[in-house]
Each structure stands twice: as C-alpha cells, then as structure tokens.
Amino acid sequence: MVKSLPTRSEVTIDETWNLQDLFTSEESYQSALVELEKEVDAFCTKFKGSIKDAHSAEEALKGYAQIYEQFVPIGTYASLAYSTDQTDSDAQMRSAKFGSVSANLSSKLSFVDSELLALPVEILEDAMKQSSEFGHYLKKLIRRKPHQLHPEVEKTLAAYSSSFGGPYELYNTTKMVDLSFEDFEVNGKKYPLSYVLFEGDWEAETDTDVRRAAFESFSNQIKNYQHTTAKTYDMKLQIEKTTSDLRGYDNIFDHLLFGQEVDQSLFNRQIDLIMSELAPHMRKYAKLLQDVHGLEKMTFADLKIPLDPSYEPKITIEESKKYMNDALAIMGDDYLNMVNRSFDERWIDFAQNKGKSTGAFCSSPYGVHPYILISWSSRMNEVFVLAHELGHAGHFYNAHKKQNVFNSRPSLYFIEAPSTMNEMLMANHLLENSDDPKFKRWVISSIVARTYYHNFVTHLLEAAFQRKVYDRVNAGHNVNAGILNDIKRGVLEEFWGDAVDITPGAELTWMRQPHYYMGLYPYTYSAGLTISTQVSKRILEEGEPAVEQWLEVLQAGGTKSPVELAQMAGVDITTEKPLRDTIFYIGELVDELVKLTEEIEAVSTT
C-alpha cells in the first residue's frame, strides 16, 4: 500500500536540490534583495530621461541587462524554495515579498522600454546596427511599438504585475495548501490520497477497483473547490481580456500569441488536425487497453493504466542516471557532462513530500544552472519524465553559453521541442537494445502513453478547451464552474467518441492544470513534439551532423522565431506536413502495439 507523504523536513537531503548554488543562506538572499533595490534606484537616477539616441540606448541596455541578471537568481530562489513546500509559511512570505518588490522595481524600470519606443524607428534601427548584443532586443521592441501605451500607463501596469499574478497564486494555494484529501476505501482497506499520490500512483494503478475508487474520491474532493477555482480562473481571463483591449489587439488570441511570434493559423492547425485525425488512432489505443485488461467498459479513469503492468519495473534514482547517460550520449560529451552534473551536484529535487508542487518542471536561471523538480515514484516511465526535463535543462544550458540574458529564451511555441526530443532519444535507445517482443511492446506503449498521450492528447485537449473558453471571453462573457465543466466534458466526448465512457469527474480535469494561468501554453507541447519527432528521425538516420545542427538550434536561444528555429533543424512548420507525418507515425506505433499484442498472446496460448 502507498504510504502517506512525509513532511519536507523528513525527506533525505540527497533527494533534494541544492539552492545554495543560488544563495548560501537566507541572509545572503536578503542582502541581495536589498542590493538589487539600491542598484535599480542608481540605474534610474543615471538613465531615466537620458535615452535620446543610439549610443545612449545601448548604454542604458547594458545597465538594464546587469540589473536583470541580478533579478533572476533572487526570483528563482524565492520561487523554487516555495515550490518544494507550499505549506511552509516562511517560503510563502518570501515568495509574496519578492512578488511585491519585483512589481515595484519593474514599475520603476518601465521607463527603459517607454523611452526607447518613444524614439523614431530610424534611431532604433540605427542602434540595432551598432549593437550586436542588443540588436535582437531592439528588433522585438520595434515589433511591440503599435501596442505600447503611455509611459505612465506602462509604469502603472508594471506596478500591478504582482496583483495580476494573484489568480495563479490563489490557484496554487487552494490546490496545494487548503485542499486536503481524506483516505479512500476499497473492500474494507483504506488508501491515502493526495494530488501527488493520485497523479503519480493511483492513475496508473492496475487494480481496477482501487484505480476507479481513487478517481471517484479524488474528483469528489476537488469538486468542493470548483466554484472558488472557477472564479479564480475567470479573474485571470478577464485580466488578459482587459490587457488585450487596452493594448489594441484585434482579439485575445492575437494578444496571447504575440509573444510567441506565431499567428492563429499555427495555433488552430495543431488543435484542428489533432482533434480530427489523431482521435481515431487514440480510440484504437483505448480499445487495446480495454481488451488487454479485460474491462467491460473503458472509462476516463482507465486511460493512464500501462498496457503491460509486468513490464513496469521499479527503477532507482541511481539507475535512472545510467539510462540518461546511455540514451543521451548521442548528444555529445558536453551535453552528457551537464546531465551528470545535474545528478552529482543536486540540481534535481526527487523527493516526494507534502506541499510539493505537482508534476515536473525545469527552471533555468541565467548565470547559474538549471533546476529540475520531479516527485520520484520509482516507476520506470519516469525515465521519460526526467529525460524531458533534462531536455529543457540542456536547451538553456546551451543557450545561456551563447546568448545574453535578453536573447537566451525562445518563443513559447518552440520551448517543448528540446524536452520532447530527449523523450524520443530515450525511446530510440530502449528499442535499439532489446529484441524481446514484450519489452518492445512496453517501450512503444510508453512512447504512446507517456510521450504522445501526455503531449498530443492531455495538453492538446487542454488547448481545445482553452480555445472554447477564450472564444467566450473574447465575446465579452465570463465563465463559472458549470460552464467550464460543460466545455471540458464536450471536448473530451468529441475526442474519445464512444471508445471511452466520460465518467463523472472527468469534466473537472480543468481544475488540475496550472497551464491555464500561463496563456496559450498547452498547445505548444504538441507543437514542440511535432518538431522533435521529425528531428529525432533525422538524428537516427544521419547521426552526428544532425546532432550538431540541433545543438546549434539550442544555442540560438531566442534570437530566431519558431519558424526559423524549426527551419534550422530541417523542419518546415509553415505547412501541415510535419504535423500530418507525426500523426501518421503515432498511428504506426499504435498499429505496432496491436500487432505485438496479438503475437504475444498467440505465443502464450501455444
């Protein structure tokens, strides 16, 4: 039976990350915060009102970059310390204080962009030519010019930035602090429940009675917070709509996609093609799961079960390190050195504890090194999760070496390509090293169920849900729990058809995902995986030349648009072909699973 989670103070220190690489003590953190405020005041005294020409623009940006580099580790420390234990009152207050200080300093610094944008375009273009370091920043700034508001308005909006982030903080506090779960019972036996235990263990539990009971209990308990969560989400939506209107965008989609440097056609294509053309393949996969497990009916609570539980071995953290080394060796010595350092120098937080953020993420503060959060449950499929996050780490490890603090981060549209690339490399490695049909089936089912299901189904259905929500908000309407439940249920039923029974509680999955507070983020998972699927095929076929080209893409950071980055990697995302090819590939994987299952069953009956 799964045990209750320990408190943060009870976990083994070797399974936690080392935040001392950011600040050696609380005192050094607080000193850095005070010093940052002084530096900002000195910068404002020196440059405010003085940005008049190309030379003064470049000088101001040099100082601005230095300020920003000081900002990053301070904000990262506050955020990461809070993410590992959101019940810690000190961490709560530290994070809240940084939010307030950050909003105040951002308000003071808002003059930089305002004064730059007040200059004639000709001067900005001249500054671009003179400065190789800040040319790309200025190029992006010119693109923003039509949507820039009066300097005092920009200053005011910056001052409210912490408040605008309030809905996300409210969501996390409700989810990780206030929401508690009672044990659930099956056949007289009690089982502990929490967000981490449900998403890390019970969703993939092979005992159908326990799995479905966990789903029902979990859904019933989060349902108690549906109205508060819906109101919180609506608050975020209305902030985005108001900002879109203030800045003069034609609609909220244009506003949210502007920073991604893509238009609505790329956004809509991912959703439309996957909803219509991937759905039949995934329905076939759901039917296969149903047949293999002998289920009378396939329900939403059954979609995360492994195809073959006997090939879901336990794996230690140390063993996972060897898998990473073997699978990612193709990326070269420098990349592999980064992987090993992440284990040896405690860049990764593996611990499971109460109050820890759910899921997994990678934070890559400029000037330090990446940090990865994951709650290690020892399931073999977590080698894919860890490979994914190390893909983010490797991306920014490379970008930070070549780009300045303003140029290192690419468009959100591209952000999931390097992470899902590593999942593909892990899958290729596992397939190459075994001819055992059962193991091969496990690997392919992991690709389908973990890599593609997670990124092409779970997150894409979030995107389809988002699009319907934003259509409503764009038309001037609000949302509540009932409306959100109806929209979510409708999206799930449209995708799964009659292959899956959308049982009560499935409609509440909109409550579980923090991505909704990050704009149009969920669809980018399938966009990134579309790119990485095509590039991983090139790496398999061409080897080192394709790897070198991919490393150049990672090192380009944010200096190119998503279309340009994909083109560097040999993929043309201005057409439907990469996405159609990827969907076709998923269909081939599902067909291979059906074939392998038939072969295995035939052997077992002879």
Automatic annotation (TrEMBL):
EC number(s) reported in the record: 3.4.24.-
SUPFAM superfamilies (UniProt xref): Metalloproteases ('zincins'), catalytic domain
Protein keywords: Hydrolase, Metal-binding, Metalloprotease, Protease, Zinc
All residue ranges annotated as the Oligopeptidase F N-terminal domain in the record: 115-181
Leading EC class: hydrolase
Keyword Hydrolase: yes
Transmembrane segments: none
Cofactor annotation remark: Binds 1 zinc ion.
Gene3D superfamilies to which the protein is assigned, alphabetical: Oligoendopeptidase f, C-terminal domain, Oligopeptidase f, N-terminal domain
Cofactor or coenzyme needed: Zn(2+)
Protein's UniProt keywords contain Transmembrane helix: no
Peptidase M3A/M3B catalytic domain span: 206-581
Family, per entry: Belongs to the peptidase M3B family.
Function, in words: Has oligopeptidase activity and degrades a variety of small bioactive peptides.
PANTHER family: PROTEASE M3 THIMET OLIGOPEPTIDASE-RELATED, SIMILAR TO OLIGOENDOPEPTIDASE
Protein name stated in the entry: Oligopeptidase F
Lineage start: Bacteria, Bacillati, Bacillota, Bacilli, Bacillales
Gene name of the encoded protein: pepF
